[in-house]
Amino acid sequence: MRRLVRRARPHTATVSSQHLVPASGTGSDFAVTERDFQRVCGWLRDQCGMDYRANKRELLEHRMRRICEQAHLGSMQELAERLERGSDPALSLAVLHGASTNHTYFYREPQVLDTFARLVLPSLPRGELRIWSAAASSGDEAYTIAMIAAEVLGPEIARASLSILGTDISAVMIAAAEQAVYPQARLSGLPQGLRERYLRELGDGQLRVVAPLREMCTFRRLNLKVRPLPFQRSFHVVFCRNVLYYFDREQQRATVEAIYEVTEPGGWLLTSVTEPLRDLGTRWLPVQGGVYRKAA
Fold first, then answer.
1. b/e for 266-275, b at 16 or more Cβ within 10 A?
2. Considering the entire predicted model, what is its pTM?
3. Under a CB-based contact definition with an 8 Å cutoff, are residues 273 and 289 in contact?
4. CA angle 163, 116, 281 (to 5 degrees)
C-alpha cells in the first residue's frame, strides 16, 4: 500500500513561520463582505469540492478569521486574493485544513461498523485485503477498522492480510494519524475490551494505538476531487463517511462513482447513515442504510 499515493512532503504539514504573526486588524474591524466570502467558498469548491451550506457560514467564517490572524491578513478580501493567485501554498493548505471538519472519534456510528464486522468482513476473499478510509482525518476511523478486523479475523490473520490506507486533504491530520496518539475523550465510544487490547497509556490522559495495528495502516494526503483517483490497485472495502455532506450533488455523485472505479467487483462502500446515495443515480447497489455493494 505504500506505493498508492505519494507521501506529502514534511514542510506542507504546517503553515510557514511567516504566517504566524498575529494581525492587529483581525479583531472587530476585520472586514468580511459577502462577495469576498463567496470568493473563498468558490475557491474551496474548485479545489476540493466542499460546498458550505448557509447554516455552516458562521463556522467557516470563524475558521477563516483565525487563519487570517495567523497569516497577518486584515480582511477576507486579502485572503481571497492570495488564494486566487495561488502563490502561497502554505496558506492554501492552512485554508484546506481549516475548512475540513475533522470532527471524529473512535467507533463512530456503531451500526455501520457492526455491519462491517458481521456482514462485510466475512464476505471478503482470502488473501490480501485492501481497505480505504477515504476521509481519515486524524486516523480514528482507520484504527477502528483495524481493531474490528483483528477481532473478526484474528490478530495474526489481520496482520498478515490486511492493508488499510487512510487519506485526508489535510497534511496536519495525516501527521496526527501517523502519530496514533489520542486523548481519552476521543475513546469514549470504544468498547472497553478493544480499548484494553489495542491502546496503551502514555500518561497525561493520552493513549497510543499498539504497534501491530499501526503497522496495518498507511496514511497519505489526497484530494478526493482528483480524477482519476491515483491508485495502482483497487480496494475490497471503502469507507467514505461524513464527507459527502460537504459536497454539492454533482460532486457527491462524481466522488462515489470514482470510488466505484477503484473498488473490486463485489466490493463494498460504507457511508454515513445520514448520507444516502439513493437519489444520486450511481451504480452502487444498496444493502442497508450506509452500506452499498458493487456488482460482482
1. ebbbbbbeeb
2. 0.75
3. yes
4. 100
Q: Which helix (H) or strand (E) holds 218?
A: strand 217-221
Q: What are phi and psi of 271, to 5 degrees?
A: -115, 180
The DSSP result for 92-105, as a single string, is HHHHHHHHS-----
Q: If 0-12 CB within 10 Å is exposed, 13-18 middle and 19+ buried, where does residue 201 land? A: exposed
**CB neighbours (10 Å) of residue 264?**
18
Domain with CATH 3.40.50.150 in the chain: 110-293
Domain 14-99: give its CATH architecture: Orthogonal Bundle (1.10)
Question: What H or E segment, with its residue span, contains residue 40?
Answer: helix 34-48
45 CB burial (10 A radius; 0-12, 13-18, 19+): middle
Neighbours of 293 (CB within 10 A): 18
Per residue in 231-263, pLDDT (tens digit) is 999 999 999 997 887 788 899 999 999 999 999
* Protein fold of 110-293: Rossmann fold (3.40.50)
Cα(218)–Cα(237) distance, integer angstroms: 15
What is the Cα–Cα distance from 203 to 274, expressed in whole angstroms? 36
Question: What are the tens digits of pLDDT across the range 16-36?
Answer: 323 323 333 444 567 788 899
Compute, in degrees rounded to 10, the torsion defined by CA atoms 194, 195, 196, 198.
Answer: 70
Reading the block at residue 174, the C-alpha cell is 495525516
Listed in order, the ranges of the chain carrying CATH 1.10.155.10 are 14-99
